[in-house]
């Protein structure tokens, strides 16, 4: 069996060894056990279900919360030569959706948004399929106690029943024990299920925090740090405007930098992502829209210009660093007004009592609004939540999110080991806590040299001669 | 003031005062009956839904008036002599949309995706490579392309794409062709984003955007005009009708012989809404059967009343005082008919 699995891994995916937790998860599924796998970021969670799909030669249905993540996964599979793959989500036109549903049996990997899965039409088409594996990606969304609560995720238990309880895999990188328990119960996995848990810690990533008195000092630090860093990296922002502004500064200073956020058209997002993957860019100034599904093993640094809202998001985002196992560095930059900004953002992404009252009376108007809080309201109403239930839920979410933000704040202020702090938060036991000065540090210069991350200045004048447009056309279309 | 603001001069006329609100509504695809009516009267229906940002439109016009490029009158805004010569300069120096009709006649965004994909697939095929990330996941574009490719094959694809792009771009200013090609993605070559190009050519992003869309649209038209097989990939992006779905429903009931009252009843909408829908069709479609709604007698009364008055200066209130039995709907229909007749004469 062992050799057989490794042979498939080599032949189908081109890897010679499994990464942390992959094999255990695959074996658990092949033994017919429903499985919740909590695997650290960067361990190739999607390989687990792709592998099982290939092995069982049956369709795999994957519920995924984010359209961009779905698209990335579809692209990755297509790139690897798997053409029978489709994403069923709101981006499809009516005609495209009908085409996909009529031909559903011809797809091996079907990605679906939870909203789409709640539709009777989609469910009945999927009901005709013999599903080899039912996957819930980012399964922490199932939990009311998870950071990205999505009401439709709560229906997945019922939907699983309607699909005749297929073999199920719930995947997440970050789940506290409370969240994990909630996932297995909601999906009805608790009796027969298997929970595979690996610590979220990524020991090869140095965890740094720098505090500043004001934003100017923070900016100066960033501009001084970047040229010293070897390799490519990401700088995360909570504001698109700030990402644009700093990217402009970096480009003017000669960095090969580009910006990535939701305002970019899809083709431009594709281009920036591919330029980065192909090492044509040194740094990306991004919002959290960037990075889900990005598999670039040699990202050497992840800098947060703004703090994220919770440790789950932070761990996910820094998890994109050094997936090849070599040393990498995560630095969180903080100045006092950052905390207020995040508090404001949290408040803004939840509907207030006035909005709840208004939109309950005018539900038909909700479709005209695309903001996060109105979308949440629309989803809650579509799922039959009443006014009092919505108010209670929103209040609870507000408290939970503020608590999570406070934890994030404690992380950046703690004087003891940052790695230990994260482990405790997720309930992980890690052994070699704070073994050396390459573990973590606050308000001190990161040990770049020791980590092998001290680079020559990446700032350089670009001497490349521009190609004439005729040469571009000649390069594009090779004469045969 | 930059080119970005001065581009609005292109939509004004020296001889005809125009209302800014109408232009804004047309550009932003906010098609009220009044906007459509005046759009037709100004000969500006081609600009419906042009991909231009109309934020700050009116304040910018104020600035253009202060610079004496535009002149505000009681009937609307006119281009000044200085404004007209600036328009000529702009047309020589800058990117502007030379095929505006393409934007409301075709789904340009859809065609853009198709075009990106077409170039990428052709490029990768010419290197015999089939392992690459597709530039778009758009199912329609992918499906249309697959069907086209099955029918015409690799030789036609590569032959036509190189010939058509080379010939088409040969007639473009060098810089426009350069900016266009730098945005293309294919084998071993990733396109530049608009922001990247703006930085390296020291242009504004808006200008790069307009240039790209203009060339995309005109390349599509070139394929159609020159009868390339690739034109079959453009045709599916042609919009069958410019009418919104609800107007279309009203119109088909009307063509089926239903009266305004019957349509209102059947569709559970107000009579005035039915009338608005029908006026919209009358403005957009030259073959609208006006005679069914406008009797020869009423038409003659209106025409005689306004005998010596230019059609755009007609006032309903004046007519109403002499002929209270004539409705605004009939008055407007007659006015539309006159505008279309004068367009034909011109």
UniProtKB/TrEMBL annotation, chain A:
Residues 218-364 form the Helicase C-terminal domain. The keyword Nucleotide-binding applies. Residues 26-193 form the Helicase ATP-binding domain. GO terms for molecular function: helicase activity. It comes from the Bacteria. The keyword Magnesium does not apply. Keywords: ATP-binding, DNA-binding, Helicase, Hydrolase, Nucleotide-binding. InterPro entries: DEAD/DEAH_box_helicase_dom, DNA/RNA_helicase_DEAH_CS, DNA_helicase_ATP-dep_RecQ, Helicase_ATP-bd, Helicase_C-like, P-loop_NTPase, RecQ_Zn-bd. NCBIfam families: recQ_fam (TIGR00614). This is ATP-dependent DNA helicase RecQ. It comes from Ligilactobacillus murinus.
TrEMBL record, chain B:
It comes from the Bacteria. Residues 246-334 form the Helicase Helix-turn-helix domain. It comes from Ligilactobacillus murinus. InterPro entries: Helicase_HTH. This is Helicase Helix-turn-helix domain-containing protein.
């Amino acid at each position: 069996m062992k050799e057989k699995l490794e042979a498939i891994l080599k032949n189908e995916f081109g890897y010679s060894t499994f990464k942390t937790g992959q094999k255990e998860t695959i074996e658990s599924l092949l033994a017919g056990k429903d499985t919740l796998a909590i695997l650290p970021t960067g361990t190739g969670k999607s390989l687990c279900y792709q592998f099982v799909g290939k092995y069982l030669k049956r369709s795999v249905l994957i519920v995924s919360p984010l359209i961009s993540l779905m698209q990335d996964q579809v692209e990755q599979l297509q790139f690897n030569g798997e053409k029978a793959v489709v994403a069923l989500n709101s981006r499809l036109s009516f005609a495209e959706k009908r085409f996909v549903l009529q031909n559903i049996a011809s797809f091996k990997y079907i990605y679906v948004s939870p909203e789409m899965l709640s539709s009777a039409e989609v469910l009945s088409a999927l009901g005709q399929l013999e599903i080899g594996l039912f996957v819930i990606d980012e399964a922490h969304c199932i939990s009311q106690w998870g950071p990205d609560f999505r009401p439709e995720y709560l229906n997945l238990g019922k939907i699983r029943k309607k699909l005749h309880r297929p073999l199920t895999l719930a995947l997440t990188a970050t789940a506290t024990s409370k969240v994990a328990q909630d996932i297995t119960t909601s999906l009805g996995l608790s009796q027969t299920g298997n929970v595979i848990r690996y610590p979220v810690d990524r020991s090869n990533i140095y965890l740094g925090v720098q505090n500043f008195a004001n934003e100017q000092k923070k900016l100066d630090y960033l501009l001084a740090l970047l040229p010293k860093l070897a390799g490519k990296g990401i700088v995360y922002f909570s504001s698109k405007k700030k990402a644009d502004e700093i990217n402009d500064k970096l480009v003017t200073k000669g960095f090969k930098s580009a910006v990535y956020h939701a305002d970019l058209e899809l083709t431009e997002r594709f281009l920036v992502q591919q330029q980065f993957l192909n090492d044509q860019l040194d740094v990306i100034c991004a919002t959290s829209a960037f990075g889900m599904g990005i598999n670039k093993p040699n990202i050497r640094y992840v800098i947060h210009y703004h703090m994220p809202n919770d440790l789950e998001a932070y761990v996910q985002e820094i998890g994109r660093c050094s997936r090849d196992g070599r040393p990498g560095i995560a630095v969180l930059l903080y100045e006092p007004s950052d905390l207020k900004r995040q508090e404001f953002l949290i408040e803004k992404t939840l509907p207030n009592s006035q909005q709840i009252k208004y939109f309950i009376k005018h539900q038909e108007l909700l479709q005209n609004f695309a903001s996060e809080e109105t979308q949440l309201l629309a989803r809650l109403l579509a799922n039959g939540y009443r006014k009092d239930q919505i108010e209670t839920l929103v209040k609870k979410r507000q408290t939970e999110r503020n608590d999570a933000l406070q934890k994030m704040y404690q992380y950046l202020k703690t004087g003891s080991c940052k790695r230990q702090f994260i482990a405790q938060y997720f309930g992980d036991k890690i052994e070699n806590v704070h073994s050396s000065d390459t573990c973590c540090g606050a308000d001190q210069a990161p040990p770049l040299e020791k980590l092998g991350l001290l680079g020559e200045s990446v700032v350089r004048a670009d001497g490349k001669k521009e190609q004439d447009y005729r040469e571009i056309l000649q390069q594009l279309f090779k004469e045969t | 003031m930059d080119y970005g603001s001065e581009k609005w001069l292109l939509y004004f006329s020296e001889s005809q005062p125009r209302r800014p609100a109408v232009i804004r509504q047309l550009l932003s695809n906010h098609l009220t009956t009044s906007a459509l009516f005046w759009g037709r009267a100004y000969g500006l229906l081609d600009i419906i839904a042009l991909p231009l940002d109309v934020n700050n439109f009116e304040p910018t016009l104020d600035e253009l008036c202060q610079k004496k490029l535009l002149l505000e009158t009681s009937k609307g805004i006119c281009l000044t002599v200085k404004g007209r010569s600036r328009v000529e300069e702009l047309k020589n120096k800058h990117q502007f949309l030379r095929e505006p009709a393409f934007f409301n006649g075709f789904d340009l965004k859809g065609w853009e995706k198709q075009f990106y994909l077409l170039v990428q697939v052709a490029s990768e095929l010419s290197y015999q490579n089939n392992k690459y990330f597709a530039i778009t996941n758009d199912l329609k574009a992918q499906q249309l392309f697959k069907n086209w490719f099955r029918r015409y094959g690799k030789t036609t694809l590569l032959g036509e794409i190189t010939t058509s792009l080379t010939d088409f771009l040969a007639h473009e200013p060098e810089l426009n062709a350069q900016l266009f090609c730098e945005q293309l993605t294919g084998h071993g070559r990733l396109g530049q984003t608009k922001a990247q190009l703006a930085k390296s050519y020291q242009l504004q992003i808006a200008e790069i955007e307009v240039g790209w869309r203009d060339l995309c649209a005109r390349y599509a038209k070139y394929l159609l005009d020159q009868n390339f097989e690739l034109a079959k990939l453009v045709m599916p992006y042609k919009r069958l009708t410019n009418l919104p779905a609800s107007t279309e429903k009203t119109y088909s009931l009307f063509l089926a012989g239903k009266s305004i009252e019957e349509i209102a009843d059947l569709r559970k909408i107000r009579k005035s809404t039915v009338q608005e829908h029908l006026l919209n069709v009358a403005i957009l479609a030259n073959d609208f059967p006006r005679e069914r709604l406008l009797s020869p007698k009423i038409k003659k009364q209106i025409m005689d009343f306004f005998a010596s008055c230019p059609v755009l200066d007609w006032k309903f209130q004046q007519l109403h005082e002499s002929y209270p039995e004539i409705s605004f709907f009939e008055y407007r229909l007659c006015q539309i008919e006159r505008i279309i007749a004068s367009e034909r004469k011109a």
